[in-house]
Design brief:
This protein has 501 residues and is mainly alpha-helical. It is elongated and about 140 Å long. It is built from 17 helices and 4 strands.
Length: 501
């Protein structure tokens, strides 16, 4: 600057002077060239170690969130208390005491327990991947294992669901006085909640907004309620969905169907009062079905054939032909000596054939009536034996462990058709809890609702065992879907913008 403080274009020190000053003042050290590669400080751990790191990081994050812990650990006991407290009422004859036997709300409680387990499983997992999306994007260059990340999420959510369902079962069963069922009920509700955990992770992985995810939760739960088999009978569904004598395939995709059936069958069949008498009750129910319901249905078909012989017409011929096919199919499947032989051709049918069939039906009825009487007598002897040997008050046992509404449900006592027809086959609908599963092949798992056992791959499972296996197979399918991002790909495909011309 000049003497007046104005900036000028003249330099006070020229470049050559600065260069000489630098050389005299700063001496740069000699740089030794190194050919060895530098030591890497980044070592990606193995998959198990990655899973442990993901798990510990997620666990610490959740523990630090007091509000998250408070809501999730109080949700189950509060819901269990409200639900069980509301539906417990004084239900004895004088209305002065409570007995599990007369609580008509128990079937509804089991359904709500399943729905609550699914709801809790969905809500705790709905935001998991959405919340981690920024972290995952930041760590994507490390090429970490997706399976380690997902398995850590699943393990943590399963642990949380185990605690939630356990508290729900303990409190709900304590208030409603449901005894000897805590373990089985917890296993079913925990399995259902685990399925919901993995389903929720699929939804969280497929959408970007938590609001969208929570809007979807009711849409996921409503089909579970509708196709649980409680609100609507499977026999009264749309004919395109239902199948007579078996649970519809679409219902087999619902965890609520497997969960509720397992709870209902276990409560009726495995309670301490019913266990020693189940086989005798089954013998009575099977004999009663054959001697009364099935025999009456067959006699109606015989009456149709009799009317056709009296007044043959085209309209009567059609009904008679159908009745003859049903009778011949029944005779063909029947393992019973002295069966009459009927031709499939109506023109060969005679009055003598109908008389022989009538005699055979009478013999058939008498045989099963005798079996019914024998089973009733054995049941009475068994009851007397237990009273004398163990000094047990069976009425008190029945009031404590047995539930009449659940018994009516699994025995299907309200059905207007104990026997129904599908094609040329008569299908039993009365007392499914006493029916035997008769698969058509090794892979045929389909059976009527509430059957006590199921056969698959040549192995017989109790309904509780098989249904738990079915739930975990559905959960495994959901995990594969999560790993390979099937939901995400479907949503991305349908969510693509329409290309502009």
């Amino acid at each position: 600057m000049d003497e007046f403080g104005q900036i000028t274009a003249k330099r006070k020190v020229n470049p050559s002077q600065w260069y000489d000053h630098f050389r005299n003042s700063f001496i740069s050290p000699k740089i030794q060239s190194i050919s060895d590669p530098p030591v890497s400080g980044l070592r990606i751990p193995g998959r198990i170690k990655q899973a442990w790191i993901f798990l510990s990081r997620d666990l610490k994050s959740k523990i630090s969130n007091k509000q998250y812990l408070l809501i999730n650990f109080l949700e189950a006991p509060v819901l269990a208390f409200l639900l069980s407290f509301i539906i417990k009422y004084l239900n004895t004859a004088k209305g002065t005491a409570y007995a599990l036997r007369f609580n008509e709300n128990l079937p509804a409680f089991f359904l709500m327990a399943v729905i609550v387990a699914l709801f809790m499983g969905l809500t705790v997992s709905a935001e998991e991947i959405i919340r981690d999306r920024k972290i995952l994007k930041r760590e994507s260059f490390l090429n970490l294992s997706r399976n380690s990340y997902l398995s850590s999420k699943v393990l943590l959510l399963f642990g949380l669901s185990a605690i939630q369902t356990l508290t729900f079962v303990l409190i709900g069963n304590y208030i409603l006085e449901i005894k000897e069922m805590n373990l089985a009920m917890w296993a079913v509700l925990f399995s259902a909640s685990c399925f919901a955990n993995v389903l929720g992770l699929n939804i969280s992985d497929s959408f970007n907004s938590a609001v969208t995810v929570y809007i979807l939760i009711p849409l996921l739960l409503i089909p579970q309620m509708v196709l649980s088999g409680v609100l609507f009978s499977f026999d009264k569904l749309n004919p395109y969905l239902s199948s007579k004598g078996k649970v519809p395939v679409i219902a087999d995709l619902m965890v609520s169907r497997w969960s509720y059936e397992a709870l209902a069958v276990y409560q009726y069949k495995e309670n301490p009062y019913m266990t020693p008498f189940y086989e005798y009750e089954k013998a009575k129910a099977d004999a009663d079905y054959n001697a009364r319901w099935l025999s009456d249905e067959l006699r109606e078909r015989v009456e149709v054939l009799d009317k056709y012989l009296d007044a043959p017409s085209e309209q009567a011929r059609q009904r008679a032909s159908e009745s003859l096919q049903v009778i011949n199919r029944w005779l063909g499947d029947l393992e019973f000596g002295g069966k009459p032989k009927l031709s499939d051709d109506l023109s060969d049918l005679s009055r003598l054939n109908l008389e022989q069939l009538d005699v055979f039906l009478t013999t058939y009825e008498n045989r099963y009536q005798d079996e019914y009487n024998k089973a009733s007598a054995l049941l009475e002897k068994k009851m007397d034996f237990i009273r004398r040997k163990y000094r047990t008050d069976l009425l008190s046992e029945q009031n404590t462990f047995f539930n009449q509404s659940m018994a009516d449900l699994v025995r299907n006592v309200k059905t207007p058709e104990p026997v129904t027809q599908s094609g040329d086959k008569l299908i039993r609908q009365a007392n499914p809890i006493f029916m035997d599963h008769q698969p058509s092949g090794l892979l045929d798992y389909r059976a009527p609702f509430y059957v006590p056992f199921k056969s698959w791959l040549g192995i017989q499972f109790s309904t509780l065992q098989f249904n738990l296996l079915a739930i975990w197979l559905l959960s495994a399918t959901m995990y594969f879907s999560l790993y390979f991002r099937w939901f995400h790909k479907v949503i991305a495909f349908f969510g693509r913008p329409v290309p502009q011309d």
